[in-house]
Amino acid sequence: MDKMWAGRFQKALDKEADDFNSSIHFDCRMYRQDIRGSLAHAKMLEKCGILSQEDAALIQTGLDSILADLDCGALAFDFDAEDIHMFIEAELTKRIGDAGKRLHTARSRNDQVAVDIRMYLRDEAAGVKALLLSLIEAVLHKAEEYAGAIMPGYTHLQRAQPIYFGQQLLAYCMMFTRDVGRLEDAVKRMNYSPLGSCALAGTSYPINREYTASLLGFDGICMNSIDGVSDRDFCAELLAVFSVIMMHLSRFSEEIILWSSFEFRFIELDDSYTTGSSIMPQKKNPDMAELVRGKTGRVYGDLTALLTALKGLPLAYNKDMQEDKEAIFDAVDTVKKCLRVFAPMIDTMKALPANMKKAAQTGFINATDVADYLVGKGMPFRAAYKISGQLVAECIEKDTVLEALPLEAYRAHSDLFDTDVYGFINIEACAEKRNSAGGTGKESIKTQIAYVKAFLDAQKEALE
Asked: What are phi and psi of 209, to 5 degrees?
């Protein structure tokens, strides 16, 4: 295929250099956005009197037919083309003749690719958001199902205080709701049209950039044409959002991996989301969670690669910017694959409340409540804290737990202890009385569940 820019050159591009320079192998996925952008550009040119009605009609018919043929597979991509823009323009010219050559009036590939990638990422962000909402819904259902399952809460991976499993799961709901907000914010900043910036300096043609922007669903135009073609902040920002999403998925994966081990046995993953061993028949491996944890580093790498490619670029467009696509495309694919497998993995997961409760009954996770008991009797917290620690040390020495320690042992440390201490430090009671806003008590959990449900309802309403 002849290069569109070949007029100035006397020699053909070296084959190896041509392959190195070409981007159609990966930017072909933007063909729908490229055609949508071209259709809007043609309508604008016609509206502004730059393109005749006849040529505009031919261009629309030709582009519509190319889109239909690509969608159904009747037309294959020509990987000898330099990029998706050149491929579609060449195919259009082949189908409708000289009218196809007029489409590129008042447009450069610089602003064309900039508008394509914005539209593509806007579409993909909507898909990621939908998957996130499905995951939030799945986690919420589990939080409701196991709202009253007692378990040890951890800090430093050490048993810390008794909580309900529903509270632990709702923590991830909160993370994912923030991720939805980050996606929405990134799309807001992304949703401005660079089309009409041309190569970098704008154009002498009397175009209407605002009209094109409105046709393509943008909130406005990029106000500086140099910035319009050289800006890839939106790619970096979306990659940062994807990285945070993956970080949250990875943290959740780590807990799933721990909880499903025989050392914990807090949950059991469905057979559909685990694998076995080729040599050890007893194994049931949480491979999906492990892969999500591993793929997190891949998305981090995509972000680092893009930031590194952009960090030293002068204005305006540079070929280095072609490197934005493989990084962002890889991240889009990875995040979507992880979310698609994660939601049903959670949905089919079963908790083992008896094992959780057994773990909660050891480890002195009611030690803080011993101190709180004394504070309620009038003792300063620091003094109460010291006595509670001494009682824990005594239990360790005698191989017992705080609930089984005789009252005489308590009274040896303070006369404030009475028989009511045993009800106060009961594991379920310890969790239940923590009903401060956001706490683990059942009433607080109900409030958190209602918050997440309201969030999901608002998202569904916004789509209607």
From this structure: -65, -35
